[in-house]
Specification:
Length: about 350
Amino acid sequence: MLVLGIETSCDETAAAVVDDDGRVLSDVVHSQVTVHAPYGGVVPELASRDHLTNAAPVVRAALDRAGLTLAGIDGIAVTCRPGLMGALLVGVEFAKGLAWASGKPIVGVDHLLGHLFAVYLDRSERIAGVAPVANAVIEPPFVALLASGGHTALYRVDALDAGQVRELGATRDDAAGEAFDKVSKLLGLGYPGGPIIDRLSEQGDADAIDVPLPMPRRDSPEFSFSGIKTSVARWVAEHGVPEDPAVIANLCAAFQRRVVDVLVKKTIFSARRERVSTIVLGGGMAANRELRRRMQDEGATREIRVVVPPLASCTDNAAMIAFSGLLRLRKGENDGDRISASPHTMLPRVTRKGAGRRGPT
Ligand code: KG4
Ligand code: ZN
């Protein structure tokens, strides 16, 4: 079975073809980074317009690279939630049009499930320079940390089925990647902030500057990143944006260390509490070198296996959407024209955003 995946939930227009075994036959990602960079964050209306321009050429490129036409695929999977409504609608309506015109079955996919199952994608023979991951031996249950610009949450995955995925805790405010982007903007470093702060931190000393950073509760799977960001903002308000690159690097290192600390401690805590021996990383922040290193080290001391999929599977892509859709399409499911876009995930949330009484700790 060959599935065409389409993803337009945020700031990437993506299309991919994946086969029955999760092998990635093509994977095209058009990033809107240059569109949003002047604003230091994603501008929803600009995102929708850019998807509109790029959806057709990106899908065509994905089919071409797989050596296929629409007639050669067996089903279509499209991200229908969660995300920016305008952006989602472009992909959903485009995909429905393709399904109608070709008479192929179509399913709507929850973007978060896409991320959570992306570890099963097999890119080994297709992408040069990326070491193969022995996916076959990754058996649920596992705990997944999903950390990106839009989401930060921990999940327990018992099987590759939406009903077998449980949110353990999420962020009450900013996503981890969002905090990187905001701190980067504050320091005038550019967008997206994650890769820049990651690089600068390598040269910095996390202990050199005393930024009073709030201590999180380590025994809760819920996150909060707005306090860390505010601490950096206060420091900048008091001292001004540092001109010395060494001071900038130290500030980045201090901030990054705290965010990574929180992500690692809470992920390990959750894996132990859930009594699972595998942790899977996903989302754009899985690119963070300190996070990968620290999670591997902390996991190793507790006999917990830490799996980091190839980066192309962690960041937003349509191969993960195709694979998630495939799981339903091969059971004969077809949403037809009943797919509608929603800004919310289908996964039950346990963490409420904002202040107030809390869910499980
Ligand atoms: O998953 P992704 O490509 O898109 C979504 O947000 O859904 O993630 C992008 C986010 C951005 O906030 C970016 O700053 C962050 O991931 N990011 C990183 C790194 N690379 C990307 N954060 C920390 N360290 C990195 N190396
Ligand atoms: Zn994402």
